[in-house]
Write a structure and sequence with these properties.
By secondary structure, the chain is mainly α. It has one domain. 81% of the residues lie in helices and 0% in strands. It is built from 6 helices and no strands. The chain is globular, with a radius of gyration of 16 Å. The relative contact order is 0.16.
């Protein structure tokens, strides 16, 4: 039961973190200049965004859940099971960020879901 709860927390917190950070970064527009000074400017603006902090806290929670899972279960189970976050991130991108998912991406989501199910059953 604790494994399922930790995996649930990991997937949701990871997804929430990714979506929050993506939302924060989209407020600044596309990063086109990768010089050290430009990166520092973007980082400075990002750290002033509330959604960035929400995302960082969620990512820290996800990492803590990952550490707990790795202390309880085999890495050959934990890492493939975390692929569920790919599915939830794609769905969150579609429904929360308004991203367009092509049929090929839906097929990929289906394949990842099947793979996670096989890992869980094995």
């Amino acid at each position: 039961m604790r494994t399922a709860v930790a995996l649930f927390i990991l997937v949701l917190a990871s997804t929430g973190g990714d979506i929050s950070v993506a939302f924060a970064m989209r407020q600044f527009g596309e990063v086109k200049n990768f010089s050290p000074l430009a990166i520092l400017r973007v980082l400075g603006r990002a750290l002033r965004a509330g959604w960035m902090w929400v995302g960082l806290v969620q990512m820290a929670l996800a990492f803590s859940a990952l550490l707990a899972l790795l202390s309880w279960e085999a890495v050959s189970f934990v890492i493939p099971a975390t692929a569920l976050s790919y599915v939830t991130c794609a769905l969150g991108g579609k429904y929360l960020l308004g991203e367009r998912l092509t049929p090929l991406r839906w097929a990929g989501i289906g394949l990842v879901s099947i793979g996670v199910a096989l890992v869980y059953l094995g």
